Amino acid sequence: MPEEGGGGSGRVPTIVVGDIHADFETYRALLHREESRAGRRLPSIQVGDYGIGHGSETEAREVRRFHLANRRHRFIRGNHDAPDEVGLAPGYIPDGTQPGRILFLGGAESAHHGPRPWEDTEMSEEEMADVLDWLRESPSPEVIVSHDAPQSIAERLWAERGAGTDPLRPGAGRSGRLAMSRTRHFLDEVYRLAQPRLWLFGHWHESWAHEDGATHLRCVGYHEAFTLDLPREVWRA
Asked: Which end of the chain, N or C, is more open, meaning fewer C-beta atoms within 10 Å of its C-beta?
């Protein structure tokens, strides 16, 4: 498992924040707590479902000002970020961004079944194909940060935490086998090709860890934050 704190050669302590669902006050409090513990400013990555497009107009202006003034704090998109707004938001890391040894993959299947549910909340087929082609031809990333998890990993989490709730249907108990999603199938292919040292994801609202061969998988819980060493390229995301 990656070390928390330190900051070894080529690495920098980085705050990792779970789903916040437009609770921007809690988000800023988590960042402040982690930076206070470190005694200095740190970069951060939030793993999607930030809540872009779901706050008030006043909150939206505050979020924009915050990220313009604090460009070290970044986030990927989740299925609860407004598709027509998140791409224009300061701090957003586009899907497929790969600054060196770290790869960012946002999006997830949504419970919303509108006219374009996949296009609204998931990467397109073309974007997914481009990422897979790149992985077949390039050195594998050391770290992957995504919103959802690979299907095989989500199924394990689902089974181990069977008493929990489905994040796509809040309040409903888990039962039976976890359905396949388009994004999780894609992430399974990414996992097979990349085999990263570390995979961070959110979406499931649970603090959960699993060792699979050489890969440490970590689901970042709802309103959870911690600091660990990530490749220095995170600053360039």
From this structure: N
In 10 A of CB 84, how many CB atoms? Answer: 9
Confidence at residue 120, expressed as pLDDT on a 0 to 100 scale: 79
Written as six digits, the tokens of 189 are 């292919």
Could you tell me the domains of the chain?
21-108+123-167+177-236 (3.60.21)
Nearest CA to 38 out of 10, 7, 8 is that of 7
**Calpha distance 114→132 (Å, rounded):** 27
Q: Per 3-state DSSP, what percentage of the chain is helix, strand, and coil (rounded to 5)?
A: 35, 20, 50
29-33 LR contacts (CB < 8 Å, sep 24+): 30/223, 30/225, 31/73, 31/225, 33/225
**What pLDDT is attached to residue 92?**
97
> Which tokens is 44 given?
């951060």
Q: Kindly calculate the radius of gyration of the chain based on its CA atoms and give it in whole angstroms.
A: 17
- pLDDT at residue 118 tops 90: no
Could you tell me how far CA 110 lies from the centroid of its own chain? 15
Helices 182-194 and 151-160 pack at an angle, to 10 degrees, of 110
Q: What tokens does 96 get? A: 């497929």
How far apart CA 50 and CA 172 sit, in angstroms, is 22
pTM for the full predicted model: 0.89
The pLDDT-based confidence of 188 (bands split at 50, 70, 90) is very high
